[in-house]
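Tutorial handout. Part one gives the primary structure; part two gives the three-dimensional structure as tokens.
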Amino acid sequence: MRFLQFVFLTLFVALGALNVSALPAASSPDTSTLIFLTPEQEIELALSAAPEHLRSEATVYVFGKKGYEKARSGALLFVGDGHAAQGDGELNGNALETSMDVEFTVTLIPNKRFNTPRVESDTEIMAVGLGGSLEDSLRAAIGSMSQWLEQDYGLTPSEIAQVLGTSVQLNINEVADRNAGVVAKLSKQRLAALRKT
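Part two.
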């Protein structure tokens, strides 16, 4: 609660220092108007950002009454939006968004179930938990990492609790747009003593 009070106080002071009113005066001639796009316009805008050869297979989400909703089905992979600058976790939807030029590998693993997205780098394994609250996201991330340790390392629930209790790193990657995200990370160096099954 103190953090939120600090954020609101900081915003209030910053707006005052900039001589900006949070609500435009009714008589002000150059008041700003928010423009909301229709779902069809949002889809068109989203697709216009993708290269032509990707548009026909793209899945598109639009912001609706319950958060992001799938407006068009397509490919089963969603990478997200690129941020050139953002704090450690998307607090309020503000970031310096940019296009991305990245390379990554997707490996399809038949007959294996995942509860949430998984990411593996040269140094870490990561389970991404997404939900409507931080608690739901944390539960999803830890559950997914537990599933990973059971499936790939053959650990029992007691062993999983020991590994996670001593080694897991948790990062909040999003608390914006009615969504919350938590990433559970384990260092491959810490897992080196465990044998993969």
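Part three, for discussion. The first helix runs from residue 2 to 17. The domain at 86-197 is CATH 3.10.28.20 (Endonuclease I-creI).
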